[in-house]
Amino acid sequence: MAPTYTQLFAAACALATTAHAVTPIEVQGKDFVNSKTGDRFQILGVDYQPGGSSGFSTTQDPLTDADACLRDAALMQGLGVNTIRVYNLSPDVDHSKCASIFNGAGIYMVLDVNSPLSGGSLDRTDPQGTYNAVYFEQVFGIIEAFKNFPNTLGFFAGNEVINEQSVYEAPAYVRAVVRDMKDYIAANANRSIPVGYSAADVRPILVDTLDYFMCNMENSTTSRADFFGLNSYSWCGDSTYVESGYNTLVEDFSNASLPVFFSEFGCNAVMPREFTEVAALYSDKMDSVFSGGLVYEWTEEANDYGLVAINSTDVATLLTDFKNLEKQYSKLDMTSVESSNSSQTSKEPVTCATSLISTTTFLNSWDLPTVPSKVADWIKSGYTNATVGSLVAVSATTIPQTIYDYNGNKVSSVKYKVLASDESNTPNNSTSIDSSTSNGTTSSTSSSSSSSASSGSSSSSSSSSTSAAAGLSTSVMGLLTSATLFVAFLL
To answer: Where is this region: Disordered (predicted)?
Structure first.
């Protein structure tokens, strides 16, 4: 008797890969380290916000479209990416499928807790008026949503809040948010998750900003940032270590007692981007000071920083920048990049003091605002009005979308591979991105910078499921294959 659909579905579920997990990353001194092996972890990452701010709402964000996440994780595996940064997230939706997809691919996540929606961030011109319980519904909601994923590398408490437009008191409020987030994680998560700040490259106040967040307050030790990100675009075209000012940044951050990395880099004043700064960033000139960086950005938007153009729900094009970055990553000696150094992991923070601040326009006080009473209650008892995610199984599979390279050739053999437990993605791994010799059609290679990777996800998922279901009328082997694909694309 032919097996029933239920029997085949159960068999397919049994064949599905279990939820392999990466090893959580922790902070030791000025390094990120693998919590199991003790090896140094260097960020080889991309900033990931498909669709820009228009691709975000309370019901949709970059980590809610599983089809898009599967495609992008597979492409990132071939590129050599090990970390993504996501700027805008909603605490009201389930991120389990996308977070698990990136986890299975060996890719970590650094997540901003702020939102562009009303009440979702600190106003740099009015931090006192926006530091309230409404704001922390967003902050604690994001922590709840992602605290259970081992590939949650850390959270950004703020992005470029402190700049020329910010009021004098702004640093104290950002440091208070760091304190409140770390206290919340300590009380409500099952592991310590690092919390940091992402700074604008405003050179006159950059060192003061670093010193303000990395020093240790004797009466508020948890307010110290665990890491420091820098959004910097000073290396443009085929520049050099000195011409770009990277040598100055190394000097400025040489005494840092916490991990420092580029939370955005990749100047596009000269196109296409060659990414020659990659060789410098991961060289012995810089890797004792910087813990890598995140290239801005994954998808092509109106500002022309993309590595990938999303032409439609089912079609994407790898841009020249993608190939150039892949070439630079492939040259890296990861054994050297990830080697540990006890002098770095043992680095201790200095005590906060007025002498640390050199600029008269920068706040020279560490008197932090008092925690709002409702926020204090949530720190103690937990915030419950959020969708808490958890790992789900992911099956290794070929991605359903069509991919073209920058010459219009169809890309073949794009596969998503679930890595072994504790394994993170690296350049030159076993995944591959190869182009066929035949040219794609004109419509497939034209990019639309306004398209969102998350648009049309329902129809794409429905199409995959329908195709899988249709295969149930064929042979037993065909039934098992289709059912397996059906399970894979339920993610």
So the answer is: 422-464
Q: What is the DSSP letter of 216?
A: B
Q: Does residue 26 carry a catalytic annotation?
A: no
165 vs 359: CA distance, rounded Å: 16
Question: Which domains occur in the chain, in start order?
Answer: 25-416 (3.20.20.80)
Q: How many other CB atoms are found less than 10 A from the CB of residue 89?
A: 26
pLDDT in tens, 372-389: 999 999 999 999 999 999
Under the phi-then-psi rule, with left for phi > 0, alpha for psi from -120 to 50, and beta for the rest, what region is 51? left
Catalytic annotation on 160? yes
- pLDDT tens figures, 396-430: 688 989 999 999 999 988 999 999 899 999 998 76
Q: Which of 144, 160, 297, 300 is flagged as catalytic?
A: 160
For every residue of 225-278, DSSP letters joined together read -SEEEEE-----SS--TTTTTHHHHHHHHTT-SS-EEEEEE---SSSS---THH
Q: Please, are residues 152 and 193 in contact by the beta-carbon 8 Å criterion?
A: yes
- Among residues 137, 144, 264, 277, which one is catalytic? 264
